[in-house]
User: Fold these one by one.
Assistant:
Number 1:
Amino acid sequence: MSYPLWFDEILRCPQTGEGLQRRDHAYVRADGKFYPVKNGVLSIAYPEVLGAQDATMNKLYRWLAPLYDLNERIGGRLLCGVDMVAGRRRIVELLGLRPGMRLLEVSPGPGVFQPFLRHDLREEGRIVALDLSMPMLRQCQTRSGRLDVHLVHGNASCLPFADESFDALFHFGGVNLFSEPAKALAEFVRVVRRDGAVSYGDEGFGKSYPNTVRRKILARINPGFSKARPKVPNGISDIKEHEVYGGLAYLVVGRKA
């Protein structure tokens, strides 16, 4: 099994909250419920029947996963006039990460942020990446295999980790489309230690983004740009909101109170 021993201390059943025992290539609940590790990915997603929006997006990402990064970079340049790689680097710079932190990245997609996360956390940092899409995790594995990232197939709304398991949490690019965004954000806060960093964001026109023809085209292509942001969850303070990707997305950075 590729997971380190410290992982056993923080892992919890997402349904009951109870601890799990490591057994060969799996983690096992007291009643025998079995969570397998296959090809380096722990599968511990709950609930088994997804909400309507989660199910729809999961089907879409099954086909989009191999092309997701290329589509973002080309579309970002041609449709939005944005250098996505530079934008990702800037987003990670705003997180305030420090070497040696234990970080949970929720919904990493194909792992496009992970080289920048690893750079800031240095070799001694620990990264766990959780996504509901197994094909996205496979892309993450291919792209970031040498970055020492522990991959988990799970649901952002039912995180399989104990309270205060991480020094920091980062999510970008999915919360607008979650079936239960408020529940997911509350989970983000729960699994971060006191005074730890909680950061999340998604697409959405900022105040600085001009009301141009391009804006109207983008809003028609992707209604997510005009969607209302989810309410900032209880339990975080020192909140800073940033416009990123040239005003096409937002990033909320706070600390657990």
Note: The chain has one domain: 39-256.
Number 2:
Amino acid sequence: MLAACICTPALGAPPGRIAARAKPHTVSYKEPVRIRGHATRSRGVPVMLDADRFPFASAPAEVSRQRTARRGAYSFRRRPSHASRYRVALVNHPSEASRIVRVYVEPHVSRQRCNLCGASSHGRGKHTLRFSFRLVYPADTFGTEAPKPVYFYYGQRSGSAQPPKRLHLVETVEQRALAHHRTAVTTTHRVRLPRLYRFALVACTRTSERVDGLGLPGAPGSRGCGDATISYRQSRSWLG
């Protein structure tokens, strides 16, 4: 869904001069995120990364430190398991810190299978689309996440290689609990394929980030998951 040194005051930065950004802002569970930026314009300045993880019940605490590289650049790499807040500060002047950057965590998708995806051609007519995958969760979120229904969206544009403008909710399926805080999801959907076509599909669960720190910020369904239709652009991003 996270180490001392001596330097002169001349290496300090005026307040507001420490830049920080996270990329990406949303990651899959177990995947890394980088917090990068510049702290002053000098090499060798000791900086520290402070982190505060959901439920944000305590003040940010140091999780890593390093010295800046050329032109004051730094880059921290973390693997958050829940929604987290990060900031970068000067080791010798902790009050001089960057703005807070927020990172959100989604379940990790593995073993994804789709019998009609990526193939160059299929016979025209009716087919059964089979789509399956597994979801891996942080252990302490499993009780909240595993019972959620999975919403499956499908959109197709016939006679064109352009993506469909909209995807429609076509199936709602349950997760099957597995060992090691994992679930299996399987769905089928009947489709009719012409000679030339392009389809898009996506599956989602509604976010509960406010409850367990997993998913996108906002109320359940506030990012499109569960709606009758979504746009193709929505389907390319995280839903929740």
Note: The chain has two domains: 9-105, 107-235.
